[in-house]
Amino acid sequence: MTDVMKKHSMPTRDPAERARDFLPVETGYDEETAVAEAKRCLNCRHKPCVGGCPVQIDIPAFVKKIVERDFEGAYEIIARTSSLPAVCGRVCPQETQCEAKCVRGIKGEPVAIGRLERYVADRHLALNEKPTKSDSNGHKVAVIGSGPASLTCAGALAKKGYEVTVFEALHTPGGVMVYGIPEFRLPKAIVRQEIDNLSSLGVEIKTNTVIGKTLTVDEILADFEAVFIGSGAGLPKFMNIPGENLNGVFSANEFLTRINLMKAYLDEYDTPVRRGKKVAVVGGGNVAMDAARCALRLGAEEVYIVYRRSEEELPARKEEVEHAKEEGIIFRLLTNPVEILGDENYFVKGIRCNKMTLGEPDASGRRRPVTIPDSDFVIDVDTVIMSIGTSPNPLIKNSTPGLEVQKWGGIIVDEAGLTSKDGVYAGGDAVSGAATVILAMGAGKRAAEAIDERIRNGNGK
Amino acid sequence: MFKILKREELNPTVTRLEIEAPLVAAKALPGQFVILRVDEKGERIPLTVADYDREKGTVTIIFQIVGGTTEKLNHKKEGEFLEDFVGPLGRPSELDGLKKVAVVGGGVGCAIAYPVAKKLAENGTEVHSVVGFRNKELVILEKEFSSCSAKYVIMTDDGSYGEKGLVTDALEKLIKSGENYDEVIAIGPLVMMKFVSRLTEKYGIKTVVSMNPVMVDGTGMCGGCRITVGGETKFACVDGPEFDGHKVDFDEAIKSSAKFRSDEIGHREKVCNLFRQEVK
């Protein structure tokens, strides 16, 4: 008999098998499991879960539809407020959002809201229904970037009848969902389908267009009534330690882009990628887990996560950490790199690290890592991947007079997403710094509402 | 998709393509580059803008066959299409206010040096061009260079054309003969740029070099094009591609250029075999 206090577990492929390919790790609920899980929902009157959702999906309502086996009805409820449910069902940190507020979670495990969202969304996508284009209201809006913030903003405006053009710098739209998150966590066919749906809504997507280079925001403003900047946080950070420019040191961005966007793991693609035998990934976030697990799938024998704090502080989702561990990723926690060592040909041969201990809490509220004196040691590796965060790309700021940004590069906006420049809105990682898909979607949605209000009030052109 | 309007082989390993890309042509300036993909399974490679025509909406690129991707690119015919073509990327050359400049080009680097020389001449700068090739067969853009240069010196390694010797020999001779250059612009193999920079440092002449490391996006996202300039890490794609030659760590750049070499050789062999099979 199943334990009503526990979530129905997510069917997951055997770690030994999945660690050698890029196919999905989690295979998803079947109908009976989804219905049984949905029945665990207590249908609380005050709906605390909804308050935990950055886009306020009416969670108890869609879960009830699953119980009734009205799966399209469930999808419609989610789609009212979320534009990328198949994506969010997979990559949202539900454990700190909706599921953290679930009353079931007080005494046992919360309802598996994310897994249910994914089930409903996948079932809908399988129908391959194309949304129909709304009648044009004759107003034109431009969207810069094609990640979650931009796609949400574009979709919301297109549904209201706006003529939306999306400008993307790379050759494939999707932003971090395409270049960053690996296939085994988020199949690219799903992203493609979401983007095709936007095209069906009438959104025009122009790839190979770098705003700040090919076109400027001011040039776009001459043709459009409003602009939304959702250009993300694409600039990789490095540690500035000796040896960081050795051959075999990559940013997680470069490593993941070669693999995910450029499909370097498939023979028929031309992009080269380093297939290290012993790989150290520096950092402890979701991106670090993705990079480590990709390195493993490219055939590495040993892959290390090198992180300067302890397991408790790992910023990655618990689920991702668990999956990484099951697959054999080795965690070197309380370990901080100080130098990358090279051989006579300028290739990486090791990474020198200090052991750390945790001191008093710092500004982030987490306990500050402190170096243990004379504790340095070397991990023998041939590849180092730096995954210590990203910041917004300055190309747009540098080419847009009047656009104010924070010292660290984030675009400054008000609550509605309006920047210091009239008619220019922004949201997602370009504003917040690297965060989550769902927060970016929330920002894209709010900006779409503000843009709609502005133009309806006659403040367009 | 971006149409190839014109294709011309400049020598057995160097080809010029004129590409229809109006948005890029509208903005391109000397010193900037584009990133292209030949087909949907291709890699992204950076190539410097060799010329542009704003009215026709075209951008010219000149490339040498060095790996699988350039091999594929070389098999493209007039009227065919490139999958992707994005730019202009990087910072343009700073060419204003210069009275006399020596432009030094090495091999296919001449393709990048030429638009710079041409723009300087248009600005009224006196241009002395010193270009070097391995042998006579590889000489490119002779007519173009001589038409915009007050002095034009060709050097070949084997003496089969022009003078025998290195570009540094010719440049030093010009400097010693009393030519006062505001600036030397050197574009070519890393080793050439290193020794030109070393020479001009001796004479205290400001020197600009153009760096072309491996990169993915060309917008600052991958960080694959890291080089060390004046002890600091720079991204060639957004901070360059042109840098102060006296500050660039060429020895590191030369070692870094081996990063994907084994892949490149393997890839070219694979592509060549495919084309051979097609011919059969």
Word description of this protein:
The complex is a heterodimer of chains A (461) and B (280). By secondary structure, chain A is α/β, with parallel strands linked by helices. Chain A is globular, with a radius of gyration of 23 Å. Chain A folds into three domains: 3-127, Fumarate Reductase Iron-sulfur Protein, Chain B, domain 2 (Orthogonal Bundle), CATH 1.10.1060.10; 140-233 and 391-456, 3-Layer(bba) Sandwich (FAD/NAD(P)-binding domain), CATH 3.50.50; 238-388, 3-Layer(bba) Sandwich (FAD/NAD(P)-binding domain). Chain A has helices spanning 15-18, 31-38, 48-51, 59-67, 71-81, 85-91, 104-107, 113-127, 148-159, 176-179, 188-200, 217-223, 252-261, 286-297, 318-327, 395-399, 429-432, 437-456, and strands at 140-144, 163-167, 204-206, 226-229, 235-236, 249-251, 278-282, 302-306, 330-332, 335-342, 348-361, 367-371, 377-379, 383-386, 390-391, 424-426. The relative contact order of chain A is 0.13. In chain A, the strands form four sheets. Chain A has a five-stranded parallel beta sheet, with helices on both faces. Helices cover 34% and strands 16% of the residues of chain A. Chain B has helices at 22-27, 68-74, 110-122, 142-148, 167-176, 190-203, 236-239, 250-256, 261-279, and strands spanning 2-11, 14-20, 33-37, 45-53, 58-64, 81-82, 84-89, 100-106, 126-133, 151-156, 163-164, 183-187, 207-210, 226-229, 232-235, 242-244. Chain B has nine helices and 16 strands. Chain B is of the alpha/beta class. In chain B, the strands form three sheets. Chain B has a seven-stranded antiparallel beta sheet with strand order 6-1-2-5-4-3-7. Helices cover 31% and strands 32% of the residues of chain B. In chain B, helix 2 packs parallel to helix 9 (261-279) and helix 5 (167-176) runs parallel beside helix 6 (190-203). In chain B, strand 12 (183-187), helix 6 and strand 13 (207-210) form a beta-alpha-beta unit. Chain B has two domains: 2-89, Beta Barrel (Elongation Factor Tu (Ef-tu), domain 3), CATH 2.40.30.10; 100-258, 3-Layer(aba) Sandwich (Rossmann fold). The radius of gyration of chain B is 18 Å and the shape is globular. Chain A binds chain B through residues 169-171, 207-210, 213-215, 234-236, 238, 240, 244-245, 247-248, 250-251, 253-254, 257-258, 262-263, 268-272, 274, 345-346, 393-395, and chain B through 23-24, 27, 37, 41-44, 68-69, 72, 83-89, 216-224, 226-228, 233, 238, 252, 255-256, 258-260, 263-264, 267.
